Amino acid sequence: MESARVLLEKSMPDLQARHAHSSSSRAAHNAFARRASRAFVFLCFGIGAVAVAVPIVLRLTGGPDTSISQYYWNDDARDLLVGMLCATGVFLVLFQGLSRWENVILSLAGVSVIVVALVPVDESGDLSRSIGHVAAAVLFFLCLFVVAVFFSRNRLGLVEDERLRRRLAMLYLFAGWSMIALPIGALMIAGMDKAEGNVIFWIESAALYAFALYWFTKSFEYSKLIDGSVGEVLAACVME
């Protein structure tokens, strides 16, 4: 018994050291997980912010134009248009959702919007001469429609507040259907040559804002899942 007690006493410092190391490792892991979660929210918010900026920046730098795509032929706005669309595309390709198919569809959306940026609409605005540009734009919004309407349900199950869950679902549905209805409406108006003034520009801007709404809603949802407001999470991202 005496020898066992002595052995136990000798081993206590080693056991305490191991326990302290395990606790510090767990704390470091938790801190990293919080930072990673905040960075995820920051990325979602950033994608939405870029989308909001596109129509505003183009309008301020290039003046009024008939459509967002037409700014490619505006010397003052071309580089900004291409840069913001390509940045959005890269973000979407790198973004990781909660399933393989969500990642595939978001990556396809990212590639599509890069094609939109690099394969311009015909300078005359003739859509029959801009098949590649139009097809890529439609595919971009179609992919986001699918993600917003169908894949968002997989995450909403993690939201415990039923009332909040219903509101988030409504926002995702509104954003998703807007992202498909508005571009189709713009194409129909343009195809019938009934576009007057900047009507196509404003419809396309509304579609981009629906895209932004999707990402802002995702930011809000994830911030709630990590127990904080969007503002608190973004502030933490900047400060850390």
TrEMBL record:
<feature type="transmembrane region" description="Helical">
    <location>
        <begin position="80"/>
        <end position="97"/>
    </location>
</feature>
<protein>
    <submittedName>
        <fullName>DUF998 domain-containing protein</fullName>
    </submittedName>
</protein>
<feature type="transmembrane region" description="Helical">
    <location>
        <begin position="133"/>
        <end position="151"/>
    </location>
</feature>
<feature type="transmembrane region" description="Helical">
    <location>
        <begin position="198"/>
        <end position="216"/>
    </location>
</feature>
<keyword id="KW-0472">Membrane</keyword>
<feature type="transmembrane region" description="Helical">
    <location>
        <begin position="39"/>
        <end position="60"/>
    </location>
</feature>
<feature type="transmembrane region" description="Helical">
    <location>
        <begin position="171"/>
        <end position="192"/>
    </location>
</feature>
<keyword id="KW-0812">Transmembrane</keyword>
<keyword id="KW-1133">Transmembrane helix</keyword>
<feature type="transmembrane region" description="Helical">
    <location>
        <begin position="104"/>
        <end position="121"/>
    </location>
</feature>
